[in-house]
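Question (not urgent): is this output format expected?
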Amino acid sequence: SMSLLSCSCARSTPRHLPFIIKRNHRRTSSTTTTMATTDMVASSTTAPRLFIRNQPVETETFDSIDPATGKAWLQVPACTKAMAEDAVSSAKDAQEAWAATPLLDRIAMLELAADRIEAIADKLADALVHDQGKPLQMAQGEIKFTSKGINRLSARTIPEETVESDFMIEKLQHRPLGVVCCIAPWNFPAIISALKWSRALFYGNTVIVKPSPETPVVDLMIAEALAGDGTWQPPSNNEKGSVFPSGVFTVLTAPDGGTDFNLGAFLSLHPSIRGVSFTGSTSTGKSILASSSTDVKRVTLEMGGNDAAIIRPDVDVKETAKKNLQREHGQHGTSMYRHQTCLLPRIHLLRLRASSGRAG
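Got this back:
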């Protein structure tokens, strides 16, 4: 069974590729551990640091496993309960002032965040290949759409509706929840995470981002880029400073086991967290929903499933079958997204699988 908020969809081990993907494969080690060992995969990526209040924090570390080799390729920070408490406290302290910041100023800071991500796009894509296992071209595409997804907020506004009747005037306003926890899955760790935290910040929430412990590196690298030199400056004149004020944006990472507490459960149950946006497994989503009832948190769940594809009668069945198989085998050359195809003649699928040399 999956621990609360472990942030992972079902991840299957390929049968015909040399990948070793195992759950609970992390090991906790101290910051003094030497990275240049025979078990460490060579990479140009610098080990990311944990930032709280836009300042680096020394922590113990755990291994990030390269799924192509089954070996550790980088060590990443494992935050403690005290660190997580400090991060949530800083987010709560910063939220009121952040919500009072004019929307155009919040948008300017989000645009600067997108620029910082774009500036290190090649490094992020390389890290994504090692950390998540997808091909370089797909990794580059994910990072590209991460910055684009943030910039799409530039044209948005926060509408306010007024409804008048003979008896009253009603106003519909969109107000921030407070501190929001954004929990991202392993399959698209950069873009799904960014779409969560950028929208939350846009509406005036402060955020705690929790990546999957299987793919923590990219979000940590983004957090370091946004923290800058630790001193916040207005976006119009901010080349090296922090993109966001202290406490507004924090990324926390910890392994599934081996530390003194469960990070996901801590964030899910924390009374200062007023909203949780989760993408991951159905079992973990159920746990989040149950734990949120204690203080009636706002919860948004995108949970794993069969990802059904419904084929309408007016399409080219053979061509549609090809596209569905391409999506099914989109990453790693194996089934990453197991589609459940409805109303599609089985004979076409069988012929296509046979012609492509795939089993199943």
